[in-house]
Write a structure and sequence with these properties.
The protein has about 400 residues and is of the alpha/beta class. The strands form 3 sheets. It has a 7-stranded mixed sheet with strand order 2-8-7-6-5-3-4, sandwiched between helices.
């Protein structure tokens, strides 16, 4: 029995008539299967969600005993400034606690950045990237300029154009890059990071680096270097992705004490709740989880890449993160919608990337899940592409 209440007489015709606007996962973020279930009368417990960018390896086992005694955590006010969590984080990262700021998810820090941005300046966002940056700065009426990074073609030429933009834009307060960026998942190389950092230091502007997926690539690729601390370099990270705890809302920033103190003074009191503080401290003690997650990711991502490359009409892009970006190579403008809804009809949710600046409905992002789910996805994509004649 199909999950969706669509006519079986001519499903292609029915799917073509469904407006994109009815798909609630499209406007901003992935990981919203409950809204899809409500919109399309789908049994949400049957959906396999590839749209979120979480760790397919699962949740650390150290979280379970905390959740069994969650009432203990919630019966007290959180620690001010999340001191125990920050101390543990400082020890793990070998970064002084005075350079670390705990936040209610990385999104809180994103929305605090405009409050320290130099007045009368703009921000340059390298896109495609997380949409919350533009939303945060525009909500404070700070001009947002975008640089469209051509990740499909001439990389070196595009990087030179980016440097030229940074040098030539008037009243620029800083730039924002993803490392790796969603939805592409590719790291900047160390030379590029050094050049951007040096250029921003010369111009005395902020260099904001979103590293919410850096653990999947390896912390050795981080843009933060204790041997060279540029005062306006701010790194944004999250525990949500690596530990698969999006409901907990826990992230942190790395920056010099000057900016930490200023941003902290603009946070609401008890920004990070007690349960998040306990869980954050506990997962940092799990020394084997990260290495096991990376082994799982490398194995399953390789499988997905190899399988997708065998399917006609699909171009898959390299990724250093826990997700993959692929593109439907078609001139049929109606096909991406049919493709998405055909998978949804089979109980599979993927992330359409049309709302990422610089992308169109032909681009899709998928989370790397376990072999059973990944095989299910591949099998259904193959069936759909075969039905469409690819």
């Amino acid at each position: 029995m199909p999950l969706l209440t669509l006519s079986e007489n001519n499903p292609r015709e029915i799917i073509d008539k469904i407006a994109w606007e009815k798909i609630p996962s499209y406007p901003e973020h992935g990981g919203n299967p409950s809204s899809l279930a409500k919109a399309f009368d789908v049994r949400v417990e049957k959906l396999v969600d590839f749209s979120a960018s979480l760790n397919g390896f699962g949740i650390p086992s150290v979280i379970k005993p905390i959740m069994e005694h969650w009432q203990d955590a919630l019966s007290h006010y959180p620690e001010p400034e999340s001191k125990s969590f920050i101390q543990k984080l400082s020890s793990n990262l070998e970064v002084p606690s005075g350079q670390l700021l705990a936040c209610n998810g990385s999104t809180e820090l994103i929305h605090l950045l405009p409050r320290i941005w130099p007045r009368g300046t703009s921000v340059l966002s390298v896109v495609p990237c997380f949409s919350e940056y533009s939303r945060a700065f525009r909500s404070y009426r700070i001009p947002v300029q975008t640089f469209h990074y051509d990740f499909q073609n001439n990389h070196s030429n595009t990087f030179n154009q980016l440097k030229h933009s940074i040098k030539s834009l008037p009243s620029l307060g800083g730039i924002i890059i993803g490392h790796p960026a969603s939805p592409m998942g590719m790291l900047w190389n160390p030379t590029e990071i050094c050049e951007l950092k040096s250029l921003c230091a010369t111009k005395n502007i902020f260099f904001v680096v979103d590293e919410t997926f850096i653990e999947f690539a390896g912390m050795e690729y981080s843009s933060w270097d204790e041997n060279y601390i540029f005062s306006k370099h701010i790194v944004i990270r999250s525990l949500t992705k690596l530990y698969s705890i999006p409901g907990i809302r826990l992230g942190y920033g790395v920056m010099v004490p000057q900016w930490k103190s200023l941003i902290e003074s603009r946070q609401v009191p008890w920004s990070v709740n007690s349960l998040a503080q306990q869980i954050g401290t506990a997962v940092l003690d799990d020394s084997t989880f990260v290495s096991s997650s990376r082994e799982f990711l490398l194995r399953e991502k390789s499988y997905l890449v190899e399988q997708l490359k065998t399917i006609g009409g699909i171009k898959v892009f390299p990724s250093d993160a826990n997700f993959l970006l692929f593109k439907l190579e078609t001139e049929d403008q109606t096909f991406p919608k049919r493709f998405f809804l055909s998978l949804l009809k089979k109980g599979i949710v993927i992330r359409c990337c049309q709302n990422f600046e610089g992308m169109n409905p032909s681009f899709f992002r998928i989370m790397v899940r376990d072999r059973e789910d990944n095989s299910l996805l591949i099998s259904n994509i193959q069936d759909i592409m075969n039905e469409e004649g690819y």
